[in-house]
Automatic annotation (TrEMBL):
GO terms for cellular component: ATP-binding cassette (ABC) transporter complex. Belongs to the ABC transporter superfamily. Energy-coupling factor EcfA family. It is a peripheral membrane protein. Keywords: ATP-binding, Cell membrane, Membrane, Nucleotide-binding, Translocase, Transport. This is Energy-coupling factor transporter ATP-binding protein EcfA2. InterPro entries: AAA+_ATPase, ABC_transporter-like_ATP-bd, ABC_transporter-like_CS, ABC_transpr_CbiO/EcfA_su, ECF_ABC_transporter_ATP-bd, EcfA2, P-loop_NTPase. The lineage of its organism: Bacteria, Bacillati, Bacillota, Bacilli, Bacillales. Forms a stable energy-coupling factor (ECF) transporter complex composed of 2 membrane-embedded substrate-binding proteins (S component), 2 ATP-binding proteins (A component) and 2 transmembrane proteins (T component). It comes from Virgibacillus indicus. PROSITE patterns: ABC_TRANSPORTER_1, ABC_TRANSPORTER_2. ATP-binding (A) component of a common energy-coupling factor (ECF) ABC-transporter complex. Its EC number is 7.-.-.-. It is an enzyme of class 7 (translocase). GO terms for molecular function: ATP binding; ATP hydrolysis activity; ATPase-coupled transmembrane transporter activity; cobalt ion transmembrane transporter activity.
Length: 290
């Protein structure tokens, strides 16, 4: 589903002495099927932005469009429930929301709420369990007997069981060890590709943004600071440093390589292997002929 923000401003506790503008005059367009990373220093408005996507908040000014759903002041979509079934949100530490007696019941809770028939829920669970990397025998276990990583996968399965078109991920790897972070992000990337999802990822990790996203939006103080392809945005070291962000490690490495050896290697989101090949080419080219 296409997502469009048109001159969106959001003010918390509007018309009170505590009014606080969290987002100001924000406009962008995310085409259906994109994988977008939203990055920004703490308090830059990322969470407020994503809360618009399933109508948890309605813009104070401007308009948000998600597929055919339009959100403006005084004009909520007729079926907010339908919007929420199309936009699945994986909140930070989603495992904190598990509550059912068994893993199976917890995964079924979302689709039941949206009126999905029991047979169809069963079918979806069979499909989702391997997709999130959980063994089927866990279905009858209590979610509270699982490891932290498994609990998170159960919570994610619950969101996926509703079959959303848009998947919103708010720092989905927070608190996991490096291996767990990579496994979960690879899982989301595979789901994104296989199910043709539109994925919106809020992250503090430049490395994840480079690896998985095809579009990046940098937020600063409630406004859009930069936007573009990762390979365009992440080479702008000075601009990123100004908002307390840094370029990804690979870009730092390429900058250092150029400074030390005078040989630029353009950043094109290459793999480590491809960078090594470029360096090998430079070294070979520089070697004296025998
Ligand atoms: N419920 C609220 N009431 C008042 N102000 C709020 C509320 N929630 C957030 N804010 C303020 O709005 C601004 C944007 O907050 P938001 O949580 O969207 O930022 P963020 O980029 O997601 O931050 P973080 O990376 O820390 O999660 C901040 O100044 C924050 O203090």
């Amino acid at each position: 589903m296409d997502i469009t923000f048109k001159n969106v401003t959001y003010i918390y506790q509007r018309n009170t002495p505590f009014a606080h503008k969290a987002i100001e005059d924000l406009s962008f367009h995310i085409p259906s099927g994109s994988f977008v990373a939203i990055i920004g220093h703490t308090g830059s408005g990322k969470s407020t932005l994503i809360q618009h996507l399933n109508g948890m908040v309605i813009p104070s000014e401007g308009e948000v469009t998600v597929g055919d759903f339009h959100l403006t002041q005084g004009k909520k979509p007729e079926s907010m429930k339908e919007l929420r079934s199309k936009v699945g949100v994986v909140f930070q530490y989603p495992e904190h929301q598990l509550f059912e007696e068994t893993v199976g019941k917890d995964i079924a809770f979302g689709p039941e709420n949206f009126g999905v028939p029991e047979d169809e829920i069963k079918r979806r669970i069979q499909e989702i369990i391997p997709a999130v990397g959980l063994p089927e025998e866990l279905l009858e276990r209590s979610p509270f007997d699982l490891s932290g990583g498994q609990m998170r996968r159960v919570a994610i399965a619950g969101v996926l069981a509703v079959k959303p078109d848009v998947l919103v991920l708010d720092e989905p790897t927070a608190g996991l060890d490096p291996r767990g972070q990579k496994d979960i992000m690879d899982m989301f990337y595979n789901l994104h590709k296989e199910q043709g999802l539109t994925t919106v990822l809020v992250t503090h990790s430049m490395e994840d943004a480079v690896k998985y996203a095809d579009h990046v939006i940098i937020m600063n103080k409630g406004t859009k600071y930069m936007e573009g392809k990762p390979e365009e945005v992440f080479i702008q070291k000075d601009a990123l440093n100004k908002v307390q962000l840094d370029v990804p490690e690979m870009v730092q490495f390429l900058n250092l390589f150029e400074a030390k050896f005078g040989k630029p290697i353009p950043f094109e989101r290459q793999s480590i292997k491809e960078i090594a090949q470029s360096i090998q080419g430079i070294v070979k080219g520089a070697a004296p002929h025998e």
